From TrEMBL:
One of its GO terms (biological process) is regulation of DNA-templated transcription. Residues 154-219 form the HTH luxR-type domain. SMART domains: HTH_LUXR. Transmembrane segments: none annotated. It comes from the Bacteria. This is DNA-binding NarL/FixJ family response regulator. GO terms for molecular function: DNA binding. PANTHER family: DNA-BINDING TRANSCRIPTIONAL ACTIVATOR DEVR_DOSR. PROSITE patterns: HTH_LUXR_2.
Amino acid sequence: MNNSGKKALSEKKAVRIIIGHACILTRRGLVQLFAGLLPQADILSVGSLLTAGIYPEIIMADLVVSDIGHDVVSSAAGTEQLLLLPQIREGKPLVMIAEGEHPALLMQLARFSNVSLISANASRQKLNAQLTEILDGKQVIEMMPAPAPAQQVAEKRREKLTASEQRVMALLRAGFSVTQIAGQLCRSVKTVSTHKRQIMRKLGVTSEVALFAQKYENH
């Protein structure tokens, strides 16, 4: 992205960010990431870019982050509105969280120099690095291929969580820290940390954002 003459968001004293994602847990994880990168940022979290009354805010915000929600791709009007956003935002960055779904739409979005495509399933370290680049005015494109049928079958065969791991996962998703969970369950911090590592291993995720986004059925 060519932002010559523009101050990078990481250098601005006040930054307005809008984060839109259908999953409230993923939104929470993204808010935590950006709050860590930009403590001074004013962050608005919404369930969808099509939320009534939010459109003017989206145009004016310094940065917009969103998934490609079902409400967007389910109608021609929603898709058209999404494709207009990069132009209406006049060079200000738009970050799309994508996992390979809707590849044709992603390809169209990637043509705009102010649009970045990233995966929420990346490690926290990688997400931090990518978001830092975006805040510094660079375009990041990570096109994630859709899961192959064999991969989907393998995911269904992942190990089941134990009862203790399910309790820890529920509390993690509710926003509790490892230390707080240890206190609630009368377990040591080391034990809860081990449960957390096992949960992430069994679900095949490498970051807390991905853990929040992960759907899990223990049967």
